């Protein structure tokens, strides 16, 4: 049974077009529930700001074990023949993600959300997505992905869910808001207190800043280029604050940050990872060689990574401290050893900001317009109020 009892009263919205989707966490993956087809069938989808195509495995693929289910969670395949509103788009595609391959064909069908705000009537629209007859995502604890990047990179002629709703005029505003919740490992048989809000945002409830204007905003705009990902240019400095230790401070230009709910961790460019670890008093090579296992006691507010997102003339600062990155259970499974704070991204200049970054903020993804022609996208961060901070060690 999903429960809405944790939602503050502030969500009693009078706008039918602000859609609050409670977040379930399954083995550190954040998923939401949507109903698909006629009659509606519930599906769980991993929402991913790092990709754009919404897809779900098809029923035959699940049954034949071609889409092998090794996640430990049940899976429901999409059945076009069982839905009276299913329509083929006559497109096919194969998508290569960093973590797997998915192939299938484009479908149009009715998506339904059980309740909207405090209204009891369901909210429905026609959505394009990929019905997958092949997927190598065997450990994915969902039926597929819900892509929240931009339709400019969506496959099989599909349009992202949020852009479909915006362009159909069904949303109250051209943004979505994200609070990942206090429980970051597993919420068990129901949703946790995390919330994905489409067509609005709740910075007033979750963030210290309290208003849209007070969030730290960065523009996505790249001259002459369509927006594809929630990506900004960035610079960074790393160091230790208590000791006034400036000799290890690193500043770099020409880097990019991609904000990706589909990624778990924070990844940094390979060519600077050694330097970043050194600046916070750790030795990356020694960790890689298993000579050293990071101690959780070393994950304190004493060290930080300051990131400056957006326009280099007027960047917005976000500070990530060691305490925010404390994740016990590395290597030996013992609580005194913590996961190394940063992974290598494998791409020069690329910083990948996954859930471990995003869980510390209330994040607003704003298209700034309802049509691609007049998008002016930006991303805003607010510091979480104490009661909404993630519970350390639950990753
Ligand atoms: C998938 O795995 C879960 C857990 O092992 C199991 O309960 C379920 O029956 C499997 N198959 C499907 C189709 O969900
Ligand atoms: C797909 O092809 C069928 C049969 O040719 C056609 O009826 C249908 O309109 C096409 N669908 C789309 C979305 O173009
Ligand atoms: C929804 O909330 C508004 C404002 O609190 C209230 O006026 C309205 O009666 C509520 N509607 C339902 C269906 O509960
Ligand atoms: C999946 O569908 C595509 C396109 O219809 C087809 O080419 C491919 O062979 C199918 N793959 C499997 C494993 O059935
Ligand atoms: C995708 O849509 C465009 C127009 O919206 C159309 O011209 C194109 O043929 C479609 N592609 C496929 C593979 O159906
Ligand atoms: C995380 O969740 C998994 C699956 O429910 C569980 O086995 C594991 O013990 C949990 N880890 C922590 C640190 O709570
Ligand atoms: C760090 O520098 C500031 C200003 O330069 C100074 O006020 C502070 O006492 C210094 N802290 C330590 C621990 O040295
Ligand atoms: C880091 O660790 C490696 C391997 O353990 C060692 O060779 C190297 O000297 C260490 N670097 C520093 C700066 O201590
Ligand atoms: C926003 O920037 C200010 C400094 O300009 C900083 O003090 C504040 O912590 C930042 N907010 C977030 C969410 O990092
Ligand atoms: C956005 O662009 C569309 C055309 O793509 C136009 O019809 C619409 O009026 C524009 N909206 C605004 C607010 O500029």
From TrEMBL:
**InterPro entries named among the record's database cross-references:** Aspartic_peptidase_A1 (IPR001461), Aspartic_peptidase_AS (IPR001969), Pepsin-like_dom (IPR034164), PEPTIDASE_A1 (IPR033121), Peptidase_aspartic_dom_sf (IPR021109)
Query: Would you identify the family this protein belongs to, as annotated?
Result: Belongs to the peptidase A1 family.
Answer whether the UniProt record assigns the keyword Aminoacyl-tRNA synthetase to this protein.
Answer: no
User: Which Gene Ontology molecular function entries are recorded, alphabetically?
Assistant: aspartic-type endopeptidase activity
Show which residues constitute the signal peptide. Answer: 1-20
Q: Gene3D superfamilies this protein is in?
A: Acid Proteases
Q: Which organism is it from?
A: Ophiostoma piceae (strain UAMH 11346)
Catalytic positions? 48, 260
Task: Kindly provide the name given to this protein in its UniProt entry.
Answer: Pepsinogen c
Annotated S-S bridges:
296-338
Alphabetically ordered keywords of this record = Aspartyl protease, Disulfide bond, Hydrolase, Protease, Signal
Which cellular component, as a GO term, is one annotated location? fungal-type vacuole
Q: Which GO terms describe its biological process?
A: proteolysis
Q: Does the keyword Protease apply?
A: yes
> In what residue span(s) does the Peptidase A1 domain sit?
30-382
């Amino acid at each position: 049974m999903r429960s809405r009892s944790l939602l503050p009263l502030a969500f009693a919205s009078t706008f039918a077009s602000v859609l609050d989707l409670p977040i379930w966490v399954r083995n550190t993956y954040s998923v939401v529930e949507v109903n698909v087809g006629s009659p509606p069938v519930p599906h769980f989808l991993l929402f991913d700001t790092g990709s754009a195509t919404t897809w779900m495995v098809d029923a035959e693929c699940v049954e034949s074990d071609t889409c092998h289910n090794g996640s430990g969670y049940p899976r429901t395949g999409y059945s076009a023949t069982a839905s009276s509103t299913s329509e083929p788009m006559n497109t096919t595609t194969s998508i290569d993600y960093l973590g797997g391959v998915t192939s299938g064909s484009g479908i149009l069908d009715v998506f339904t959300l059980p309740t909207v705000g405090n209204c009891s009537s369901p909210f429905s629209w026609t959505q394009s997505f990929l019905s997958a007859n092949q997927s190598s995502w065997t450990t994915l604890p969902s039926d597929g992905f819900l892509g929240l990047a931009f339709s400019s990179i969506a496959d099989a002629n599909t349009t992202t869910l949020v852009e479909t709703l915006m362009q159909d005029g069904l949303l109250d505003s051209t943004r979505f808001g994200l609070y990942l919740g206090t429980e970051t490992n597993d919420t068990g048989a129901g949703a946790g207190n995390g919330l994905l809000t489409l067509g609005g945002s709740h910075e007033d409830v979750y963030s210290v800043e309290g208003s849209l204007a007070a969030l730290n905003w960065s523009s996505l705009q790249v001259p002459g280029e369509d927006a594809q990902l929630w990506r900004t240019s960035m610079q960074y400095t790393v160091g230790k604050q208590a000791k006034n230790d400036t000799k290890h401070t690193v500043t770099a230009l020409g880097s990019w940050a991609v904000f990706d709910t589909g990624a778990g961790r924070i990844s940094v460019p390979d060519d600077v990872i050694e330097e970043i670890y050194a600046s916070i008093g750790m030795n990356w090579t020694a960790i890689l060689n298993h000579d050293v296992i990071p101690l959780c006691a070393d994950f304190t507010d004493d060290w930080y990574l300051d990131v400056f997102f957006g326009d280099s003339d007027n960047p917005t600062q976000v500070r990530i401290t060691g305490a925010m990155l404390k994740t016990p259970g590395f290597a030996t499974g013992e609580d005194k050893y913590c996961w190394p704070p940063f992974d290598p991204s494998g791409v020069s200049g690329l910083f990948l900001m996954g859930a471990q970054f995003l869980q510390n903020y209330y994040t607003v993804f704003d298209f700034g317009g309802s049509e691609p022609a007049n998008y002016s996208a930006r991303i805003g961060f607010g510091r979480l109020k104490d009661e909404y901070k993630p519970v350390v060690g639950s990753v």
